[in-house]
Please model this.
Amino acid sequence: MKKIIFVIMIICAYRLVHAQEAVVKSETVPRKNAYNEPISAPFAQGKFVPDISLIADFSIAARDIGDERYAALEVPGLIHAHGHEEHGHEHAALNAKNGFNFNYAELSLYSVVDPYFDLFATFHLSEESFEVEEAYFTTRSFPFGLQLKAGKFLSSFGRINEQHAHYWDFANQPLVYRAFFGDHGLLEKGARLSLLAPVPFYLLIGGEVLSGENEVSFGAEGFEDETGANSVDDAVGPELYTGYIKTSFDLGNFVVLMGASVAHGSTRINHGVDEPIADNPEGHAIHGITSIVGADLTLKYLLDSYRYIALQSEYLYRVFDGDRYDNLGAKAELEKEQSGLYIQLIMRLAQRWRIGFRYDLINKNEIKAGGAAADLPENLVRYTGMLEFDPSEFARIRLQYGHDRSSYLYEGEKKKINNELVLQFNMAIGAHGAHSF
Amino acid sequence: MRRVVMICIMLMALGASRAEARLNVVCAYPWIADLTARVGGERVKTLSLSRGNWNPHFVVPRPSLIAQARDADLLIMNGAQLEIGWLPPVVRESRNARIQQGQKGLLDLSSSVTLIEIPADVSRAGGDVHPEGNPHYALDPHNIAPIAAVIASRLTLLDPEGRALYETNLSMFRADWNKRLAEWDTRFSALKGVKVVSYHTLFNYLTRRYGIVLVGTIEPLPGIPPSSRHIESLMIRSRSEKVTLFLQDVYNPSKPARMLAEKTGARMIVLPHDVDAVPAAKDIFSLFDTIAGRLGR
Model:
């Protein structure tokens, strides 16, 4: 009996399948797998998910001074230890503590918006904060090699400013960049127009109008001193302008990239000028005009598909002209003339191994307050070496040694040589777009 | 100052005249440029962004490539994500609206061939996987003539006045190609059943077409360099499976293959994967001649 039922079932199933086949065959437009897959998903948007990636950066650091003294290190006239908490948010500098550090996680989204725009966003995540690091659009179809970029973005000033931390060749940024632009680089709200010139080689010319909020060289927020004697208004609209020109050509396997940049804008920096002298005996503020010019050169020799030797250098020069205010109501003329550079040599020895050396120098550090020159140290140097093992394109393990002779401890203005060893882990998951040169 | 302006104007004029003379086609790899030049003839100016002896996965996106892509009327790419690591920033930064995704000026050749080895599970635990399948389809000589036809129709779409020329060139190329194809078929078919090991899954379209048996790869997973343990196990397998040929590409280290060949009594041969990978492979015909010659020796 069971057998008969089984046979009948098979016959029925056979007929059913064949009946469906007949239906499919009679259609003029055959559909792939029409009888076992839903034909349509009329409201599905899954294919429009943007490229999403997450990059996380961890490190283990060991240095010959404690965390508190390390945090208090300054470069006289350039890097103030107390500067970081004051601009409203507090997240640790890279590799700030002896022992384990969670440096950051970077969440990026990218997609085409429509035929006319691309949208990029990068979120900087630390243990306690979620910040929009960048969010900007670029145009896709401007004529004559022009492109407009607007939103919040890293300025195209110089060579390294535009690069995110995970793409740097070292676990920290060059000294002169940290001195002139702070831990975040020149990161501003604004707009950029750039032109890829119609010449037979690479020539990029661009200009930016930026809000000028950079807390180290510029700043848009006004202030009033504690006595009320002097005050400076907030910036009205954008007050920072940059311009740059970059060119590149190849000589066989030798790639040359050169650039020149300028940033010019108004400066308003308040270091406690509005606090009573009893609370902050050092309270002061500055207001004036800052110009920074930069020159960069990258030489890269490609030995084969994996190996290369790259020499990269940037020189930055900053001039400030304005006034210094203190919290007793005094105002004095203030002039600054400072410059520095870095030179780095990176070698990729094999598919997975890179080695690099960097030399940082602050060669000029002149400040004149009220016509009298301040006694500031010059020729401050830092040496950094790194060895990198990249198990794949998505993981990077880097051992870095830094010998810093540029930093001073605030108490007593004493030079403190800082040696540090950093073991850094940087991992990327998801769809992260390819990097430019 | 005046001199600088003059030089700029002259350079601009140079750029402009170069662009208007004929259809400017920028190709991702040399084999595409060679094929396009054959179909396009004198109406088309072609150039290749990468060189034949480079790893096609890792071309350095030098700024000069951006300048080359700037004036392109058509960008022809291999596709199947072979260029994922270098071409996107070049296209984006070229500020060339004609070659952006969705435009007629971007041609992805992978969509006109049947891809093999499409992974069921896409995870980077499997190394540098290509979700769309193995992108090295150009190494099956049977894929070349259909691709030439796709290029011809795209050239016609962009330059309808050239239709007659493109059609003539295409049929001439097809006739030549099919004649040679019969010859290559005979030579490659003689290798049926021969057991080989390659560094990467680079020659899989060729081995699959002619029944050459790929026993393993020197890299344990795509894009991951070999460990000594992997080499050890590959040596044991090569011996037991009686591998006779180690196929070495021109851009990966040849030391492991040479060592394995020596120890197992097999032969290592360096095969070109693209036009100009070795001096003998100077165009698409001699590319397959070289492969057939070196395999058959």
Chain A touches chain B at residues 112, 115, 118, 138, 140-143, 145-147, 196-204, 246, 248-250, 255, 257, 300, 302, 304-306, 308, 350-352, 391-394, 429, 433-437 (CB under 8 Å). Residues 25 and 31 of chain A are 10 Å apart (CA to CA).
